[in-house]
Amino acid sequence: MDASGQMQLTGVQASLSPKDGPALAAVAAAFDPARLTQARRLAGLTKSAIARELSVSAVAVGQWESGTYPPRPDHVGRLAELLDVPPAFLAAGRPYARLESSAAHFRSLRRTPAHQRAKAIAFAEQVWELVYALEKRVQLPPVDLPGFSAGEVSLEATSADPVQAAQALRRSWGLGTAPIPHLVRTMEAHGLIVTLIPFAGAATATVDAFSTTQLSRPIVVLTPNRADDVYRHRFTAAHEVGHLLLHGDAAPGDVLQEKEADAFAAEFLTPGEMIRPELPPRMDLKALERLGKKWGVSVDSLVYRCREVGAVSDPAYRRTYQRLSQLRRLGLFQPEPVDGYPGEIPVLISRAFALAEDNGLTMTALARELTYPLPRLRLLLGDAQAAVRPQLRLV
Question: What is the rounded average pLDDT of the residues 267-276?
Answer without folding.
Answer: 94
